[in-house]
Amino acid sequence: MLTLTDNAVAAIRDLMVGEDVPPDAGLRIAAKPDEAGALELSLASTPQAGDQVIEKGDVRVFVAEDTVAVLDDKSLDAQPGDPGHPTFRLDRRP
To answer: How far apart are CA 44 and CA 46, in angstroms?
Structure first.
């Protein structure tokens, strides 16, 4: 299962601040259409059917069903950038 670093949790929390999103909203990770091997991240109000829901602290991440296996041994990390624009990266867990 995808894990989240403390930096990723803080970055996701920052993305939610000031946004008009419901309390159960989260960051969704899915395969990018028409780009093999690419992923896209977006804010989502609720998970879609089949999404794996990962919760850490007060944030939620929704992993699209067809992406779960690809991210199973990964950890989502983030580096701060401009306010509201962190840089996310996936690392292989040891």
So the answer is: 6
